[in-house]
Amino acid sequence: MIKNQTLKMYVIVGLLFIIVSCNPESKPIIYGEDKCEFCRMSIVDQRFGGEIVTKKGKAYKFDAVECLVNYMDERIEDESKLKFILTNTYDHPGELINASECAYLKSENMPSPMGMFLNPFKELTEATKLQNENTGTIFNWKELRKDFAKN
Q1: Of the four, 16, 30, 110, 145, which is 20 to 30 A from 1 by CA?
Q2: What is the pTM for the complete model shown?
Q3: How far apart (Å, rounded) are the C-alpha atoms in residues 44 and 75?
Q4: How many angstroms from the chain centroid is the CA of residue 107?
Q5: pLDDT tens for residues 78-97?
């Protein structure tokens, strides 16, 4: 009877481990140590980093939205296999936010790590404020992806 209960306990613990380990989640970016999956540069600026997490739990980190989108265009054939597409933002540095919920200001008066002058924002009001101060164009995620596809 004890052996049977022990076996059941091992089976339950094993199933719980499998369930928990299959739950993909974002991995924190270690600024100054982690390298960009696309360009291999160190990720240092907390306003521009990003991350893609697959449904299997593999996390790919990036130093800028430009690298994240270029990586997706080159290496991700099926976005349905992704659990998360996240970006840091200019107005909430260090916080990873769903990329589809952000606004993106492209302004030649506001540099970004990869030289495309692309700045992500959590708050559209902040993007608009800086657009008024610096000129440029604001994109949502779908518009940004189309803009990359054109270039």
Answers
A1: 16
A2: 0.83
A3: 24
A4: 21
A5: 889 999 999 999 999 999 99
